[in-house]
Write a structure and sequence with these properties.
Helix content is about 5%, strand content about 45%. It contains 1 helix and 12 strands; from the N terminus they run H-E-E-E-E-E-E-E-E-E-E-E-E. Strands 1, 2, 3, 4, 5, 6, 7, 8, 9, 10, 11 and 12 form a 12-stranded antiparallel β-sheet that branches.
Length: about 260
């Protein structure tokens, strides 16, 4: 799927009850959760590249400075994540200082958060139908039934392909009892994430973006983070010597 061309926020529920889908919403939820189970298992044993780019935007909304880190990621068959840095661009950012020898620019979050085991933790409400690029989709509003201090939960909207009943897009943030989850001092919390079909009806993350405003010295600087995932390959094509070091781990499924 193509990346978004403009900011898109979660849609609000219409004032009237949406037209019901051919399948009961509960059945659609059960089926897309089963797909999440399948993909959470399938991605174990894959290697892929992750490109994280942080930008400061000028008055024309074009990048005025940026910092880019590309890593090779690998998820072992037992779910451990290994990371090897491929490149780190010299920063041209004027306000953000990210040259700290730390490439953890994105807070860890599950690639496939809506597994069958996690459904009881959420209140999921059918919102309606909506075209998404070349796809016809259903969208659902998602919020945790309760929040915890030690574990984060998703709050936002998910879009589900009407044909394959698989999640193809999300907009939302991760929340805990102590507030929204973010990476270090960076203010990014609300992410718009698109998935792509990588074959065998597996829809893996492809593109995510978040926009925020940095206030510094009386100035308001628009900033953006873009995350791209690409070149998904089975583990067998990645030599063991190139595995990299274990990435920072958190509870739950793989979270690169």
């Amino acid at each position: 799927m193509r990346p978004p061309e403009s900011d898109k926020l979660p849609v609000a529920l219409p004032p009237s009850k949406p037209e019901p889908p051919p399948l009961p919403p509960e059945e659609i939820i059960r089926r897309f959760a089963a797909k999440e189970d399948e993909m959470a298992r399938a991605i174990r044993g894959y290697a892929f590249q992750r490109d994280v780019r942080v930008q400061e935007l000028g008055p024309d909304r074009k990048p005025a400075g940026q910092y880019d880190v590309v890593s090779q990621m690998r998820i072992s068959l037992d779910g451990k994540i290994f990371e090897k840095m491929l490149s780190r661009q010299n920063s041209t950012l004027q306000y953000l200082d990210l040259q700290r020898g730390d490439n953890d620019l994105v807070a860890p979050a599950p690639l496939f958060p809506f597994t069958t085991a996690m459904l009881p933790k959420y209140e999921i409400t059918f919102g309606g139908k909506e075209p998404l690029d070349e796809l016809n989709t259903y969208y659902f509003m998602v919020k945790p039934k309760a929040i915890e201090r030690a574990r984060a939960y998703f709050s936002g909207v998910v879009w589900v392909d009407q044909q394959d009943l698989v999640i193809v897009k999300t907009i939302g943030k991760w929340v805990t009892e102590t507030g929204d989850v973010k990476a270090g001092d960076l203010p990014f919390t609300l992410f718009e994430t698109y998935r792509q079909d990588v074959g065998k009806k597996l829809w893996f993350p492809a593109y995510a973006r978040s926009d925020e405003t940095l206030e510094q010295g009386g100035a308001r600087i628009p900033i953006r983070i873009i995350v791209k995932w690409s070149e998904f390959k089975p583990e067998g094509s990645t030599p063991a010597s190139d595995a990299g070091s274990p990435a920072k781990s958190v509870d739950g499924d793989a979270k690169p």
